[in-house]
């Protein structure tokens, strides 16, 4: 068994993120589509700084100012009934991320991969992380932005569990 990145109690409430002062590098500066030790340093520093401030994790922007990912997981947002996720052009296109996209499409949920500015999240009703260690983890807040709905997130968790537990 693989232990969850966040405690079960924390997952029920949703995790809280803050925007990191560090950014994900340009693909011209490092192999950003791989798990490379040098790239983890930025994320480790960001996560530790977030925890010192009372958050669970940090949201990483990319070198252009677009939303990239959390420190060790990909990120999704739900706006109305559509699923939005950053284009993985300077971070790892995770296997769990790809699986969630497939599940969403199978369930007639429109998936939009795009460059998203931080202001985009103010109109979103749900947010969650995906990754091997986090599976699908609901986000409660990113700084002052709150996400209280879990309708699509819960459905995706149920479908994901059916898919991976078979």
Count every helix, treating DSSP H or I runs of 4 or more residues as helices: 4
Shape: globular
Give the averaged pLDDT, no decimals.
89
Largest sheet report: 9 strands, mixed
Termini, distance in Å?
A: 15 Å
Computed structural class: alpha/beta
User: What is the H/E string?
Assistant: HEHEEEEHEEEEH
What share of residues is helical? 25-40%
Radius of gyration: 15 Å
Unreliably modeled segments: none
Strand content: 25-35%
Number of strands: 9
Structural summary, described in words:
This protein has 166 residues and is α/β, with parallel strands linked by helices. It is built from 4 helices and 9 strands. Strands 1, 2, 3, 4, 5, 6, 7, 8 and 9 form a 9-stranded mixed sheet that branches. α2 links the parallel β1 (15-24) and β2. The two termini are 15 Å apart.
Quick gist of this model?
By secondary structure, the protein is of the alpha/beta class.
List keywords for this structure.
9 strands, 166 residues, alpha/beta, 9-stranded mixed beta sheet, 4 helices, globular
List the helices and strands and how they pair.
Layout: H1 8-13, E1 15-24, H2 37-52, E2 57-62, E3 67-70, E4 74-79, E5 82-86, H3 95-106, E6 111-114, E7 126-131, E8 135-142, E9 145-146, H4 151-165
Parallel strand pairs: 1-2, 1-8, 5-6
Antiparallel strand pairs: 2-3, 4-5, 4-7, 7-8, 8-9
